[in-house]
Amino acid sequence: MLTVHHLNNSRSQRVLWMLEELGVEYELKRYERDPHTMLAPPELRAVHPLGKSPVITDGALTIAESGAILEYLVDRYGEGRFAPPHGASPERVRYNYWMHYAEGSAMPPLLLKLVASRIAGAKMPFFARPVAKRIAQTLQSGFIDPQLKLHFGYIDSELSKSPWFAGDTFSAADVQMSFPLEAASQRAGAKQLPQVRAFLERIHARPAYRRALERGGRYDYAD
């Protein structure tokens, strides 16, 4: 049976959602973040050398990386659903683009914002705190926040063209893009953008999304 190695409050929630949309039976193995470092537990390294989630095992295959997992699931179990047909159609080109954009372009500034906030609040000798805080604030105001505004303004504009990322039909690209938009809603105020907000409302109302939340446990990005 297909197994999802699921880390709480993580990108692997997308994998559960995709499986619920597909109607594929799966086993769920839960892992909890370290409450102090928020890192994945060392047990995940027994599944994949990088020790991160999401990871799935399906027979002899072990697959990591959200985009690769979603593409595998759709190809293996989709029966033509959740992706435009292979080829050079505008829908397929958009589908491929957003599948890669999610982690390649949307997530880096969000990760930098998280790192900068942790630098600013890190425990360190008192004489170093002002310098660290000033560096974090300069990085955030001079680079991170402008990049977030650029990227999520662009996403909002693109969503005004069609209800879903690949066109008029829901696809795995929408599942892949869900995490950056949910994270940006929490960390960067992206929920104030009208098309982003409407997209989040659409996905959160899907029955398969709700079932995935019930299976996966705590996921702070869904509100």
- Which CATH top level class of the largest domain fits? Mainly Alpha
The CATH topology of the largest domain turns out to be Glutathione S-transferase Yfyf (Class Pi), Chain A, domain 2
Residues in helices, as a percent range: 55-70%
Ranges where pLDDT stays below 50 over 5 or more residues in a row are: none
How much β-strand is present in the residues?
A: 5-15%
- The neighbouring-strand order within the major sheet is 2-1-3-4
Instruction: Tell me the distance between the termini.
Output: 31 Å
Note the run of SSEs as H and E: EHEEEHHHHHH
EC number: 2.5.1.18
Pfam families: GST_C (PF00043), GST_N (PF02798)
Protein name: glutathione transferase
Domain GST C-terminal: 88-223
